[in-house]
Each structure stands twice: as structure tokens, then as C-alpha cells.
What does this fold into?
Amino acid sequence: MTRRAGPGTRTSPAGSRAAQSAIRREQVLAAALELFCEHGYAGTSTRRIAEAAGVTEGLIFHYFATKEALLFELAAQRHTFAGQVLTVMQRAGDRSARELLLAVAAGLTGVSSEEGAFIGFMLAEAQVNPSLRAQVTSATAVVLGGIVRTLARRVEAGELRADASLEAAAHGFFGGFLFFFTQHRHLGPAAWRREAAAFAEAWADQCWRGIASPAALSAHSTKCP
Amino acid sequence: MTRRAGPGTRTSPAGSRAAQSAIRREQVLAAALELFCEHGYAGTSTRRIAEAAGVTEGLIFHYFATKEALLFELAAQRHTFAGQVLTVMQRAGDRSARELLLAVAAGLTGVSSEEGAFIGFMLAEAQVNPSLRAQVTSATAVVLGGIVRTLARRVEAGELRADASLEAAAHGFFGGFLFFFTQHRHLGPAAWRREAAAFAEAWADQCWRGIASPAALSAHSTKCP
Amino acid sequence: MTRRAGPGTRTSPAGSRAAQSAIRREQVLAAALELFCEHGYAGTSTRRIAEAAGVTEGLIFHYFATKEALLFELAAQRHTFAGQVLTVMQRAGDRSARELLLAVAAGLTGVSSEEGAFIGFMLAEAQVNPSLRAQVTSATAVVLGGIVRTLARRVEAGELRADASLEAAAHGFFGGFLFFFTQHRHLGPAAWRREAAAFAEAWADQCWRGIASPAALSAHSTKCP
Amino acid sequence: MTRRAGPGTRTSPAGSRAAQSAIRREQVLAAALELFCEHGYAGTSTRRIAEAAGVTEGLIFHYFATKEALLFELAAQRHTFAGQVLTVMQRAGDRSARELLLAVAAGLTGVSSEEGAFIGFMLAEAQVNPSLRAQVTSATAVVLGGIVRTLARRVEAGELRADASLEAAAHGFFGGFLFFFTQHRHLGPAAWRREAAAFAEAWADQCWRGIASPAALSAHSTKCP
DNA sequence: GATGAATGAGCATTCATTCAT
DNA sequence: AATGAATGAATGCTCATTCAT
It folds into this structure.
């Protein structure tokens, strides 16, 4: 029986007891993240998490009150996807909607396939766990609301049609990415990056065309013949 | 001793033992469907299914070899969503892509929120269950492939741009609906119908504009000022 | 690993499947009773009960929803002690209080030391388990109330003093037996019977003298010089 | 390095580290006492004791080798009840048995309901824990023996009947109080004091009458008509 | 003296599944 | 066809205890 990361095993400089324990905690979270994504929440036992993290089961409950607390901490901690979108939105300034959507899409390309898998997992779990659903729904609302509000400013600028449903656009734009992620989450990193980049650009372009005003459309097509 | 539902077997009246048992079987499937959608596959015990179906637990295993067999049968049996899409596609004839997308969208509106919940469940479960994933992936591929092929014919007809990525379009179009479904699955029937109809129409319109040729676009706008 | 009482092992005439299962259920209860008395409720694991009953742990939960349900069923089922007292009381008729207390005492002598141990266990557990306490308290109230009411009739008959606290008498009479039981529960059957009989008679006599009227006392002493 | 509380050690002021640690130790004992009484020994985790005492779990094991050691120390330390009885007995002198029993009863009235709860707990726990049982049994034997021996002297004085079983009397007298305590341990302090005083007096009186000689009885009744 | 990370055995309970009836 | 007794492995979680710091 191999002892892994037992206390006192490491006298390395970086490792005060407190630091060591923080690392262990993180290892548990990381292991849980990976296993949850692969087998789902209910399909992952705390036993397996402990094994994967090289830790005893009891220690998991030393750090986290319940298995669900582990899930919630993961949900609260990992926001890369929504964060990407919001960051891009906040830096919007007076850029065109087209540039914005492309920027968001490009940002999402940077997201790894693991991140995609995590989003797929969260969305799936949210369907089944009411308190997680609340968390996910509100996060989604923030992102969609952000997109809608930013696009609304571009309607006034004449770039987008006044009669387009921006809610539908935001919903569909986002949903398209989400579906893409869940469908391609099992790709390797290289293939993922390639496919994701291609899809992201084409999809951002189409969504923009879907809501662009005739004037903006023709202006765009003369620039890119 | 294998029981076969051969033609001669059904001379007995409708209330016969055979018919009774078929009904029971169906009740089990229905109960499983509902519980799976609400609590997920792993979150639903065979005991709860039995209770909900008004049947003993043992009987479930008389009808289905394993709990997973129940899941697979559900996956194979209930295809309303994908079926809707395919049916519309097959009847496409020479209708315009715009009409087609709107028809698909309208078809999806007719789908109940329960159906939407079922799709959400299947997609979620597929992330976790490899054999289900295969089934779902191939079903999705058929639907998306059908959309792409049908749209491709309309490129030749000049209605759609030749440089548009139809794969991205199909993916996004479909994904938009899926995301909408998972986000609104907890709505009551009336609200669902209203919201779904509004979204479906707007979304079909936008997706069409995203890939329409300039000629088709201007032709459309002169018709609907 | 010796198979004990497995299904199908017994083709004995008395043993239909239903009867067999009732027996098994009873075995579980009996094992639980014994272990609870020896190690307390919290100190007895369902594992040990299963082993002692020659049954798998799962089966216990097939019969009883929870470990606590086992406890409650035991509490509801085994009432020999209180039952003895009440039966004697109900048959009271117009017997003297002295005869009554002696009859109660004699009845309690018939109670085995196991029964005494069970009472000790219940009283102990009731201190710690609120719902069990409610049950025990109400059972005790019934018994004490019965004693008080029966004695009250003998006050009117002049056998007992009008100024004696019958509540205190009933409480103390009963409590004396209870304490005796808990103190002697580890005796063997023979020694138990001897000690119990001696104590019961002496104690009933003293309690009677404690509340008897002077007239009854002198009448008694002339009869038994 | 063994720390000894030798006389020279205590020259430090009252707030010294040593004093501090003694206080902490006492807090742990107090917390354990209260929790044990409420939830039983097995039903109280060291974690809860630590929380209630405002101390880390580890510290408990710094002071006490095991959880059981905590229990034993409590058993050895708190003897108010038995102490009361013995003190009264030792000061007996040539007082009458009647006065003695009333004094004992009065002494027990002074005992708080917490003390009553503690006795109930100890008696309950003794049924389950052999080494505690030994301790409790011998303590009980001392008290009961003390009562018996004191009463025996009053038999010679003619106050008590020669043919009365003093063992049964002592047992029952004590048991009556014990049962009263366990039945009323959940009363508030005021109600407790009232109820306890009433019961104690009535019970002591009855027990005395149960074993008093005819002469003493009539002498008593002429004094208190 | 005091902390709290860490352990490993144990807990009550749930589960899908089998099988005799 | 249908029951429900029975299994045995697994589950999330708690426990008393140890020990390096």
C-alpha cells in the first residue's frame, strides 16, 4: 500500500502544514471535478473521489460537510465560461455588435474541452438538483441579460434591427455554444481547439446576420466581398 | 419459452391477460420516464419506479432485464422531437429553407414541455453513459445531417449563401432549441406553449437570416415590410 | 460460511414462505431485544443484530424501515410488566388493597429476569429518546393511574388512610420494583426467582403498611401474630 | 516530561497557564456531563463535547486518554446524591429512624434536577458498561448498606419492627426516589423543587410507617393527630 | 498547552438484482 | 404473470483517536 502525500512525508520549503492542507483540499476538489464530469454527481462515490485524490474518505468530510457541499463549491469556484462572456461584455465600449459576438466566440475558443465538459455537467446536474439549478439559472440570467443589454445599445446605433428579438438571439447564441460543447466534450485538446475555433467564428457570424439591420449587412458585405 | 406477439395470438378480447401485462409494462415505462426526467437515472431507484407504477419491484425485472434496459427502451421508443424534425424534413419537397425552418420550429412548439424535459434528460444522461451516448449521438447526427442536407439543396436554389457553414447553422439552430427547452422545462403547459411559440418563430427567423443569400433576404423584406 | 435458515432450505410442513418470513422477522426482533438489553440501543449495530439473528443486514431493513422502528416495535410489543400490573388491577373486584399489592408483587415475580432487563433498558433508553420517552411515560402513567384509582376505592372502604398520598405510594411502590429489577438483572434465573419473590413480598407488605389505616393495621396484626 | 501539581508549583498568580488549563479541563467535564445526561454516552460524540466546551477535539484527548476516561472521571467526581445520603447517615447519632428518613428526603430535595438527571444517566449507563457498573454497584451498596445499618440500630431501640426486611426497605426507599427523579427530570427548577419536596416528605413518611413498630406508630399518631 | 489535519474502522441505510413460490 | 423475501455490495457519513506542528 503506497503512502501518498501523507503528513510529514514532505519537508519541502513551500509546505507549511496549512499550505499542505490547502493543497490537499484542492486535490480533492480537482478529483471530484474530473469524476463528476465523467460519471456524473450521483455516479461518483466519495470513496472514488478519495482514491483519485490520494486521500482517505474521512478527510473529504473534514474539508466538506457533505458531498453536495463539494458540488456547490465547484459550482461557485469555476466560472471561466460565464466569466469569459461577462468580461468581454464589460469591455464592450463602443465596439460593434459584430465585433462583440466574435470576441465572445473567440473567448470561448480559449476555454478548454475540460471546461466545456464541466459546463455540460453543471447543466445536466442542474436539471436534477434544485439548489444547483437556482445557482445555474441565476448565473445564466446574468450572462444572457448582459448580452441582451449590450446588443440593445447597438440597436440604437442602427447596427441591429429594432424588430429583432434580442432575447431569442442571446438565448440561441448561447445555447448553440452549449450544445456544441456537450457534443464535442470528448475530443482531444488539439481537435477541440480546431473545431471550436471554426464553429465559434461561423456561429458568431450567423447570429449577427440574424439580427443585423439591412444597412449594416450591406456595409459589411462591401467590406468583405 | 418465448412469448411472441404473432398475429394469431391476439384473438383474445382486449382485457385478456396478455393485454393486461402489456399495459403494466407500459405503466412501468411511463413511471420510469417521469422519474428519470425529474431526478435523473442514478437518482431514481427501481423501488420508486415500482411504487409510482403501482407494481412490485420484482415485476420490473420480469419485464426488463436490468434497470439500464429500461433506460435504453425509453431512448429507443420516444423520439417525438427528432421524429418531428425528420418528418418535416422528409416532406420538404421544394419548399424554401425559410418555410422549412419555420415548420420545424412550429413542430417543436407542438412538443410538450415533458418532451422537452425528456430530451434534456437524455442529453444529460448521454454525457455519463457511453452506450446511451452512442445512441443519442447517432440520433443527433441523423437529425443534424438531415437538416444540413435539406439546407444544402436550398443553397443550390440560391436561397442560402454558398459560403455559410450549414453544419454550424444546424448545430446552432438545434442547440438553441435544446437550451431553451432545458431552461424552461419547469414551466406549466400554458406558459410553455406561449413562450415556446414566441421563441420558436423568432429563432427560426434569425437562423434563416443568418444563412440566407442577399437576394433572398431582400426578396423577403419586400414581401414583409 | 454456514448458511443459516436460507430460503428453500426448509421444506418442513409448518413453513410456508409467509410463515417462514414471519419467523425470520421474529428472530430479528428477538436478537435485537437481547442485544439492546446487553449493550444498549446506540451500542448495538444493525450488523450485530443481523449476525445474531442469522440474517443479512439488508433483510432487517426489508422488515423494519429504520433501526428505530425496530426499537419502537419492541416497545409496543413487550408489555408483560405493565400488562401484569394492569391485569391484576382489573380483576381487583372488592379485594383488599393489601391483597392487591401482594398480587401485583406476586405477578411481578413471574416476570423473568430478561423481562426485568428489558424494562431497565427501556427506562434507560427513554431518558435519551424523546419519542420513546413519550411512549414509556404514557404507559407508566396508565399503570400508576390504575394503581392510584384502585387504592382510592380502598380509602373509602376504610382500609387506607385518607391523608396518605396515593400518588407518592404508587410512584414509590412501582419505583422500588424498577430499581430492584435494574439492580438484579444480571442474576441467573434461579437466583432471580428467589430474590425477586422475597423482595416482592416484603416490599408489598411495607408499602401497604405505609398507607394503611390504624384500624386495618391492627386488624392485620391480630390475624398474623 | 510529567507535570506535577506539587505545592511549590502554585506560587504563580491565579490566572497562570496552569490555572487556565485546569479551567479548560473543568469546562470539558461540565460539557460532557450535560451532554451525556441529555443524549447518553454513546449518543454524545467527542466532537459535540468539544464544541459545547469551546475547545478543539484534540484537546479533549490531551486531558483524557479516551472518551471513557471522561465518563469514569465524572462517575468518580460527582457524588452529591450518594454523598447527601451518607452525610446524613453519618451524622445520625441517636436520632429516630423517622427523623433520619425525613432528613435524607429533605437532603435529596436540595439536590437539583440536573443532579437527578445525572443519577439517571449513570444508572442507565451502568447497565451497559461493565466497568462503570462495578463502580455504580459498589457506590449503591455503600449507600444502601449505610441505610440498612443505621436502621438496624433503630430496631434495637424498638422504633422499627424486628421482622421487617430492612434490605427491602432501603432498596425500595431509594428506588422510589430514583424513579421519581427519572420521571421528573425534565421539569424546570421551580416546579422540580415543589414536586420534589412534596414527594420526598410523603415518601419518607410512608416508608417509615412500613417498617415502624406498632408502639412507635401509635406514639407518632398521638403526637400528630 | 493547544491545534486541526489525518486516519481507518464502523455506522445505518439504499440499491439493483435473484429466485422460490 | 406476479410476488416479496432475500442478498451482498455499495453509499454517504460519523466516530474516537493519533500526531506533527
Notes: Chain D is about 75% helix and 0% strand. Residues 1-12 of chain D have pLDDT under 50 and may be disordered. Residues 130-156 of chain D form the longest helix (27 residues).
